[in-house]
Design a protein that fits this description.
Chain A: InterPro entries: Aminotransferase_I/II_large (IPR004839), AON_synthase_class-II (IPR050087). Chain A: Its main location: endoplasmic reticulum. The complex is a heterodimer of chains A (540) and B (496). Chain A is α/β, with parallel strands linked by helices and 540 residues long. Chain A has helices spanning 2-27, 32-39, 55-79, 81-88, 93-110, 123-132, 183-196, 204-208, 211-224, 235-246, 261-270, 282-293, 321-331, 353-357, 386-395, 397-400, 407-422, 425-441, 469-487, 518-535; strands at residues 160-163, 166-170, 228-232, 252-256, 273-277, 304-309, 334-338, 366-370, 380-384, 447-449, 457-462, 489-490, 492-493, 507-511. In chain A, helix 1 crosses helix 3 and helix 19 (469-487) packs across helix 20. Chain B has helices at residues 6-36, 54-59, 120-131, 146-159, 170-181, 196-205, 217-230, 259-268, 291-295, 324-333, 335-339, 345-359, 366-387, 410-420, 450-472, 476-489, and strands at residues 78-85, 94-104, 163-167, 187-191, 208-212, 242-247, 272-276, 304-308, 318-322, 400-406, 423-424, 426-428, 438-443. In chain B, helix 9 links the parallel strand 7 and strand 8 (304-308). Residues 472-476 and 491-496 of chain B have low confidence and may be disordered. The chains are: A alpha/beta (540), B alpha/beta (496).
Chain lengths: 540, 496
């Protein structure tokens, strides 16, 4: 308490001198001279100059003077000649008022501002708060009619599979090259399983690196013509580990608004400044890049990336890489390209989007892809310059902190790439299937194709949306369910997680495979036309 | 909990300081050389800014050969380590065709399912032939096979929860599930030593994250009281929900979670519990059901039970076991269920058969034997190491035993010396542990025989004599010599 009261007292003392001087000036005190010589030693009087005082001592002296002298003085002022003099000499009343005002102002200023005392909560209060607090349930209630149970496959997910004991035509697996069930690949996997077991039982850093992982990395790099590549143990974890490894707080990322969830998660985890451009709209991209870099000197010092998908999982569109590379070089951005659905599909020999557009692969700084589609295995890879790859080996969390890819899946990837190299005709099959299905589905009632003509994902969206994603999805899922039930053709609607921020319309996705026959394709298209005409009769 | 002795902290800091100084010196000369060379990429900020990759370039590269050693066989109790060499610079390591057969004290092969197994492998190959290696589809589309459903039922039964869901990767399980359970307005209270996947999942969720001291129920209670009383930052609204995330066995500490105490605290304050059993499921407990069984906690008291199949079951992937409603919610909203390729069918089969062996449903008692063996092996090895004077972390029954090294110079010394003696151990340094707390981590397996372990102890003693002698004499000069020796010995490295 002592410590707290001290500053108040000193402030009062400090104020008294000006108050007093002010009052004495106003009231023209007769003793002014003598008093001032006492309290203001710095004003020299001709008779006796007091010894020069240090500031500290002089202040102390003023204080002691005031405490002893000022009280009786005031008193004398009130009762003695003070008032008489004041009223005698014609002083205007307003001066008094002003003087008093100043006094009040100074007094108020000298006071400490009021703060309510801060009392921490007592233990009892905390106990009460803890008792009162009621958490929400861990998960929201499940809506009625939610489709939780999905079809269960009873055989391999090839072009034809078994669901519920019936053989169905499968358009739900991204088995683009038809490698599911390939004898050669299965044989190589069997050999790998017998030699290495199933799991690798460790992250890459700690004896989880098996020689087939290194072979697979070398094979992919050689196939794509890049200096090096790095394997991840899961498709979606690839991109959401790669982006945060290269983009940190303060960096700029320009991304397409239609990127799928794993990319969105990567962007979020990177904590960079993310700017979205309109889905697959190069004018919008150019505008965004221009806006970000024009007159911005600081932009040159920070890392800048463009993140795009080669074939958008959410729409089936293909990113115009030639234009992106031109813009990237103009504005000095780096490109991160997600090739999950185009690796092994696009390009003359299946080397992806760069080959498709005839862009040299080294123009693209970072390429990532999941291997769960065309290669019919699992895991993912990232490829680029040696620097890009080496940097990930210690800074990419999905690589460092996760067990490595099961060796048999790495073997499967190597065999799949070998197969693609040896049998380029499989791509011709795939392309003719895509073109055929595209043609057949072009006049589906109530649905329109929104995917690129070369995309192996044929994306059908509603011609007339109901303005609610959930209702749209419900309609589409009804179509898919009926087609499976009535015509034994397995197709799926693009479902969306509540965490997904993609705003693109939902649709029916058909994954075309090189293994599909013409009759499969005509079966799916006729069935789709029939069912959508009946389900969407109100929406055509 | 590790207590860093004062002198050790000082010498470790000194070593890192020295390495840092040398690195800076090299960077300085590098810059001088670069200055004279033409700059090839103008207008791009460097892909690694400033000191971002300093640690990798100047510290990690020196001892790169101690990490990521390739192997050429299954990660069983003995495996073939591929020899590597470098041409005067550790920056690039080249593989040779030579391998050396080493005792494996590094892999998470707790129950010995890593190698071909008489019961599992034929079934796995059969399912590979039937289902191929992938479904090329996500779980909600065409990625659910009969095997996936079977495993989900089996896991639920094994861990003692009503329902479960499986994913193709353990890391992705944590990092995609947490955002589905708690979001903005929620609070995640996480153990300070939780795995990176939990950290990333929590970050991705948008919830507020608070950390409590490692394995300290008292501090957890303190944090809970403070947070419930204070509410959300700025708005002071009450938290929507609070999720406490702990691990069963901490992978870098070997410690068991103080689960009963933590559950009691969480129950008292109505917080939900999320238990990551990546290292404990299958490895501890009378019948391999993890820390709940070992510490006598009813699985019903744990809201979310997560685990991986990578370790004890010798496969890949992860699971979440919880109430029916939560699993249904996850099936509708979890991105890894909706967008990720489903778990490879042969890997699913491996887990099914491994769990069946553990439960004795394969018609033999091999599972029970494995569980007895891992417990005996772990406890034997731990007690022997402690007797020898190593600073071993962790609790009894835990198959993970870290030995503290601290000094950066001891990392390569220990690792290389052990490898020379045909024992492959894992040395762990930054970023997997704090910078000053480098350690050796030993993982014991049920497939180790008593002779293997005695052999490993002999080697450790030998290496101890050769290396630890220097630091244990506590003569400053010798402590100085070790880092300098390593700096000189690691050879001149070409700068970037």
């Amino acid at each position: 308490m002592k410590a707290r009261s001290l500053p108040i007292r000193s402030s009062v003392l400090r104020c008294r001198v000006p108050v007093r001087i002010c009052a004495e000036y106003l009231f023209q005190l007769p003793r002014w001279e003598s008093l001032s010589s006492d309290i203001l030693p710095s004003v020299p009087t001709p008779q006796a100059a007091p010894p020069p005082l240090t500031p500290l001592r002089s202040r102390r002296r003023v204080a002691s003077l005031l405490s002893t002298i000022s009280l009786p003085r005031k008193f004398a002022l009130g009762h003695g000649h003070g008032i008489a003099v004041v009223f005698g000499v014609h002083i205007d009343g307003h001066l008094v008022v002003e003087g008093l005002l100043i006094v009040v102002i100074v007094f108020q200023l000298s006071r400490k501002s009021y703060k309510p005392p801060k009392k921490p909560l007592s233990e009892k209060e905390i106990d009460e708060l803890c008792d009162e607090w009621e958490p929400e349930p861990l998960c929201p209630p499940i809506k009625e009619g939610a489709r939780i149970n999905t079809p269960m496959l009873e055989s391999a997910a090839g072009p034809h599979t078994t669901i519920g004991g019936k053989e169905v035509v499968n358009f739900a697996s991204a088995n683009y090259l038809g490698l599911i069930g390939n004898e050669k690949i299965i044989d190589s996997c069997v050999g790998s399983l017998e030699k290495y077991g199933v799991g690798s039982c460790g992250p890459r850093g700690f004896y989880g690196t098996i020689d087939v992982h290194l072979d697979c990395e070398a094979k992919i790099a050689k196939f794509l013509g890049t200096p090096d590549s790095i394997l991840y143990s899961y498709g979606i974890s690839t991109i959401f580990s790669v982006i945060p490894a290269f983009c940190k707080k303060g960096d700029i990322i320009v991304a397409d608004e239609g990127v799928h969830w794993a990319v969105q998660n990567g962007l979020h985890l990177s904590r960079s400044t993310v700017v979205y451009f309109k889905h697959n709209d190069m004018a919008s991209l150019a505008h965004t890049l221009e806006k970000l870099t024009r007159g911005n000197k600081r932009a040159e010092k920070i890392r800048r990336y463009i993140v795009v998908e080669s074939i958008y999982q959410n729409s089936g569109q293909i990113a115009p890489l030639d234009e992106i590379v031109r813009l990237k070089e103009k504005y000095r951005f780096r490109v991160i390209l997600e090739e999950s659905h185009s690796f092994g599909v696009l390009g003359r020999s299946g080397r992806g989007l760069a080959e498709h557009y005839g862009v040299p692969i080294d123009k693209i700084d970072i390429i990532t892809a999941g291997m769960g589609n065309a290669l019919a295995t699992d895991g993912g890879f990232c490829t680029g310059s040696v620097r890009v790859v080496d940097h990930q080996r210690l800074s990419s969390s999905g690589y460092v902190f996760s067990a490595s890819l099961p060796p048999y899946l790495a073997t499967a990837a190597v065999s799949a790439v070998n197969y693609l190299e040896e049998n380029p005709s499989v791509l011709a099959n795939l392309r003719s299937n895509i073109a055929l299905l595209h043609k057949e589905l072009s006049d589906t009632p109530g649905l329109e194709i929104s995917s690129h003509v070369l995309s192996p994902i044929i994306f059908l969206k509603l011609k007339k949306s109901t303005a609610s994603t959930n209702t749209d999805l419900d309609l589409l899922e009804t179509i898919a369910e009926r087609i499976l039930k009535e015509d034994s053709v397995f197709i799926v609607a693009s479902k969306r997680s509540t965490l997904d921020k993609c705003k693109l319309p939902v649709g029916i996705r058909l994954f075309v495979s090189a293994g599909h026959t013409e009759s499969d394709i005509s079966k799916v298209s006729s069935s789709l036309k029939r069912v959508s005409a009946s389900v969407l009769s109100d929406y055509i | 909990m590790v207590r860093l002795p004062y002198t050790t902290a000082l010498t470790t800091l000194f070593s890192y300081g020295l390495l840092f100084a040398f690195g800076q010196l090299r960077d300085f000369f590098r810059q001088l050389i670069d200055w004279f060379k033409a700059n090839d990429v103008k207008g791009y900020a460097p892909i690694c800014l400033g000191l971002e990759d300093f640690y990798v370039r100047r510290l990690y590269m020196r001892i790169q050969d101690c990490f990521g050693r390739p192997i050429a066989s299954a990660p069983d109790s003995w495996f073939d380590v591929v020899e590597r060499y470098s041409n005067g610079s550790d920056k690039t390591l080249k593989l040779t065709s030579n391998t050396s057969r080493c005792l494996n004290l590094g892999s998470y092969n707790y129950l010995g399912f890593a190698a071909a197994d008489e019961y599992c492998t034929p079934l796995v190959i059969e399912s590979l032939k039937k289902y191929s290696s992938s479904t090329c589809s996500v779980r909600v589309d065409g990625g659910t096979t009969k095997l996936h459903t079977e495993l989900e039922e089996l896991v639920a039964r094994f861990v003692g929860k009503p329902s479960s869901i499986i994913f193709g990767m353990g890391y992705a399980t944590n990092s995609t599930i947490i955002p589905c359970l708690v979001g903005r307005g929620g609070l995640i209270i996480s153990d300070s030593l939780n795995h990176n996947s939990i950290v990333n999942g929590a970050r991705g969720s948008g919830a507020t994250i608070r950390v409590f001291q490692h394995n300290s129920p008292a501090h957890l209670e303190e944090v809970l009281r403070e947070q419930i009383a204070g509410g959300q930052p700025r708005t002071h609204r009450p938290w929507k929900k609070i999720v406490v995330i702990v691990e069963g066995i901490y992978s870098m500490e070997g410690e068991l979670c103080k689960l009963p105490e933590i559950i009691a605290v969480c129950k008292k304050y109505k917080a939900y519990t999320y238990l990551d059993e990546a290292h404990s499921i299958g490895a501890v407990g009378q019948s391999g059901r993890g820390v709940c069984e070992l510490l006598g906690v009813d699985p019903a008291d744990v809201d979310i039970m997560m685990g991986t199949f990578t370790k004890s079951f010798g496969s890949c992937g992860g699971y979440i076991a919880a109430s029916k409603e939560i699993i249904q919610h996850l099936k509708l909203s979890c991105p890894a269920h909706l967008y990720a390729t489903s778990m490879s069918p042969p890997a699913v089969q491996q887990v099914i058969s491994a769990i069946k062996v553990i439960l004795g449903e394969d018609g033999s008692n091999r599972g029970a034997q494995k569980l007895v063996r891992i417990r005996e092996n772990s406890n034997f090895f731990r007690s022997e190491l402690t007797k020898m004077g190593f600073e071993v972390l962790g609790d009894n029954d835990s198959p993970i035993m870290p030995i503290m090294l601290y000094n950066p110079a001891k990392i390569p010394a220990f690792s290389r010396e052990c490898l020379r003696q045909k024992v492959a151990i894992v040395t762990v340094a930054f970023p997997a542990t704090p910078l000053l707390l480098a350690r050796v981590r030993i993982c014991i397996s049920a497939s180790h025989t008593r002779e293997d372990l005695i052999n490993a102890l002999d080697v450790s003693a030998f290496v101890l004599c050769r290396i630890f002698f220097y630091s244990h004499t506590r003569k400053g000069i010798l402590i100085l010599i070790v880092p300098i020796f390593v700096i000189i010995h690691s050879g001149y490295q070409q700068s970037w």
